[in-house]
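Look over this today:
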Amino acid sequence: MSGPGDVIAGLAPPQENVAAAAYRGRKKRRGGDREGSAMGDAWSRSAGEEVEAARGEDERAAEAGADQPAAELSALAGYIRSSWARNKRARDLVEERLLACLRARRGVYCEAELQEMWTADAGEPIYLPLAATKMRAAEAALRELLLPEGERPWGLDPSPLPELPPEVMAPLLERAGQMARQQMQQAAARGERIASLSQFTQTMVQLHERLKDETLAQARVEAKARAARMEDVIEERMERGGYYSALAEYVQHFCTYPAAVLKGPFLRRGKRLAWTRPGQPDVVSAPELAWAAVNPFDCYPAPEAQSCQDGDFIERIPMTPPAAPRSSATSRSPTAPTPASASPWRRRPTPSAS
């Protein structure tokens, strides 16, 4: 007869087998009487209930495991919603300031100012665009500095003291020793006095320094050539990624609003020409680096953030649903707005180009 310790250690058979063996023994001793039949029925019912209970627990565990990713997604969505609500409340404090800067750039008054200044005799007040003039002047100065015509506003310079790898520096010492031995052999052939060990070491050190300087000079020339080739590679990636157009828009935001945001580089899938087969070009789609100037009206930084890298930074990305295909059975009124113009997710206005 097994005890609890045997069951824990895994030495005893399952509990339902023990009960079944006991039931069979009692039934055999009593000759299959009515009492044994009743006990057998009771045991069958209890065993069936245990099996059903175990099956129910397994089903509930499976459902809990299936709901675990959904619960994690719900927690992530809740965190994003709470961060959005907090950042939006903090950004609402500067919303009116951003709108005032935009009106100053466009040279218009708000509705409240128009109601205060408008009179029937004078008519609509005239706005003097002094702020817009200063904004355009600052933008022109920054464009000349950051986006000069015909040249790059950046460059790559190699290190003045390039670090050579060990596989290049190790043979120099051996080569210097060979040159020093050749000089001693030539001196002995001419009948000159053989140099001492200290003189030989000094000669080898001088030859090693001379070889090292020559190798570094060659490395500097190669580094400049590689830096020039890398500049062309970076320029091509910046052109394809829209860096200069994003920088121009960033300068416009910087001269208009209290803050400006330049996002990048980030990955964006684009199409480009590639030679996938000999002599036959093809258009391939691959991820590439991209830059973009974020509209200040779509930026929601954390209240305590000192920069875009601090706290939770949320960017609102407006999206317009695609227009429904026009069927031949229905006709649209010529004055009815299209879905794109009637969409509530239109981007906020940006300052007009100077």
